Amino acid sequence: MSPVHRHPDHRSPLVFEVHELGRRAGVMKRIETTVPAPAELGIAMIEVPKDSDMELDLQFQCVSEGVLASGTVTVQLRGQCSRCLDDIEAEDSFDVQELFFYPGNEVEEDESLVIDETIDLEEALRDAVVLELPFTPLCRDDCLGLCLDCGVNLNRDPDHSHGETIDPRWSKLADIGGDTPN
Question: Domain ranges in the chain?
Fold first, then answer.
């Protein structure tokens, strides 16, 4: 069964022409550009904001099977720290590498194709970024988180305490106390 691949939207800033590579192995084309980020590029706690700048530094190289796209994408990240719930805003770079097969090659359904002498990098960029995002992002490596009793941010008040606590199972015994005779 032949896999079904959709035709790329030529209006998308992530669709690139590769016609000038001419299917000659070894021919390269370098792309350095800034494009808007697509929607839903992230996970629950951290994401790349829609339409924020994505800086692409890519190389398209013609190989016998197709076009190898490799390089880096630099993005702005926005989210919440999984320990203290403070906002996170950062910049990070991710490696991208995807082989786009020429039509006529036998490929699996999830493999990328050169269609109409173009390649659509959206899925490759999505895979490169989303799969590398931290599942539990931190505002900093030594984040102290929140107080388990009252929810105070321990990063802002590291000396925060509630005094000595007594295990509720033993609290009745504390009332019995007092001095014991010798």
Answer: 15-130
